Amino acid sequence: MGEIATKIGERTAPFEMAPSILSADFTRLGEEIAAVEAGGATVLHVDVMDGKFVPNITIGLPVVKSLRKCTRIKIDAHLMIEEPGRYAADFVKAGADMVSVHVEADPHIHRTIGAIKAEGALAGVVINPATPIAALDEILHYADYVLLMSVNPGFGGQKFIPPVLDKLRRLKEIVRERGLDTLLEIDGGVDEEIIADIVAAGADIVVAGSAVFGKDDPAKAVRDLLDSGSDWV
Ligand code: DX5
Ligand code: ZN
Question: Nearest C-alpha to atom 1 of ligand 1 is from which residue?
Fold first, then answer.
């Protein structure tokens, strides 16, 4: 836990809570972020979508640049874009501390991972729910973290896909067997019901959008998720 805390944030729970601003009120983004920080969030998840790799368009570099000025917690840019290698390093320059790229979107992911690290950020590899763990085989060693999608990427507010829990357990085991310190992140459909199972299965970072910003009190929502996620310990 200490090691991961130094690597990413200053967590007090056995995992990092990463609210996704996709579900935030963009007219009050600064306030929303202050609230989740007060609730104990140590990572801020930023969903970047291009309308091609996924059927939705969200935000990009200028927003990350602005976010960097209003928060000290780690910015985690999740790139759901085609040709992510063209932009990954720019997200680090804009202020991201972590940048993740989908294997499905990048035939040159080894190069992209290297570019992210060269700029000084943690590099993540993402796989969709239907992409097997085997797709990570040759790149796992190079990734600082792996993000397992627990919904099909593109939208907030979808239902968690249960078999991803077993996928997470299996990947945790592979990471252990290989003696790696790769962090594991889960993204999509996380709520208070499922979060303890996710942390028990081995997640180090847990993303939640609607379960945080869809609530009246996002600070309390983060606290509650951190509490529920620590329940199994
Ligand atoms: C989905 C995004 C997620 C999303 C999570 O494509 O990658 O980060 O914002 O939202 P919830 O927690 O509402 O499923
Ligand atoms: Zn995401």
Answer: 153
